[in-house]
Design brief:
Layout lengths: L1 H8 L12 H9 L11 E6 L2 E5 L4 H10 L3
Antiparallel strand pairs: 1-2
Helix pairs in contact: 2-3
């Protein structure tokens, strides 16, 4: 909640618009220039200040995260 409030205070969106489909997001990720082979590197925060860089995030987890951004 704290991070979300900071993002909103900066005037940035905290939710994904309904006009952007989950499949569209997944398709864009697959064409990302940072893609290494078949994987896109993600930076996931374990907690504030502790990042994890991982290219082994499956489509199902990405789909779930994108759907969560609509709530």
């Amino acid at each position: 909640k704290r991070i979300e409030a900071l993002i909103a205070a900066a005037g940035l969106p905290t939710r994904l618009p309904e006009s952007i489909s989950t499949d569209e997001v997944l398709a864009k990720l697959k064409s990302d220039k940072k893609k290494d082979g078949g994987t896109v590197p993600f930076i996931v925060l374990r907690r504030i200040g502790v990042p994890l860089i991982d290219g082994n995030i499956g489509d199902a987890a990405v789909r779930e995260a994108v759907e969560e951004l609509r709530r």
